[in-house]
Amino acid sequence: MKKIIGTSKNFNGISKADAGKKPAGAKKKGVNPLFNGKFQANEVKPVEKKTPALEPSEIDMSKAEEMVKLFSSSLKGISDKGEHSYRFILAEVKQHPCTAKQIAGFAEYLKSHAAVSKAKDQYKENQGLGLFLSALINSSPDSDFKLDLTGLANLTYLGMQNKKRVEIFGLSPCDYAGMYSTAGKLKIHVQSMEAINDFYVNIIQPELRGGMVEFVGPDGKTLKTVYPPKNDSDEEEF
Known about the structure:
Strand content: 5-15%
Largest sheet: 5 strands, mixed
Shape: globular
Low-confidence stretches: 6-12, 27-52, 117-121, 232-238
Distance between the termini: 106 Å
């Protein structure tokens, strides 16, 4: 028998030099585009939930700019007495009634254009904007409103003499909200019970003349409902 010396092939007939090579057409090992310890190309990210707001395309820009001018002119009637100031602003606003959508658009316009950015630390403008929104709502032909005020200056007196159904997001703090309400429902979304301080219950509640103010937590559950002093047990249906 002839002895083969120095062969470089293994028992499968493949040379040692070719042993590490992949056959033609074989797929290369590498990073799977869909999985490499974590999802990549098809990774699904959670959708961030935001409070209701109008899309920029839904804002009536010309109307919003008109309302900004009206707001600026109404500031001359602002005084330390909220109800007196409200009556002055209401007289101005009644001549320019707005729909619920236009009012929501005005609030969005203020946030995106920083129309009141210089007034963030000024009591007069903060009080004025809260009263102005209140007057817009009460003089509107509509009955139901939804406002996202997140990012705006601290507003006071929002919901002054309220008589409509108003749902509010992003109002912090809630100073004087719903003051002298006469009817309707003011529904305010808050982060915690801390927003409903003793000041609100002890000072504002006695001044409610009708309607109700409901505070709702992040989970949508009612934290507290405030009624006028004389009819705490009379729950009005809406």
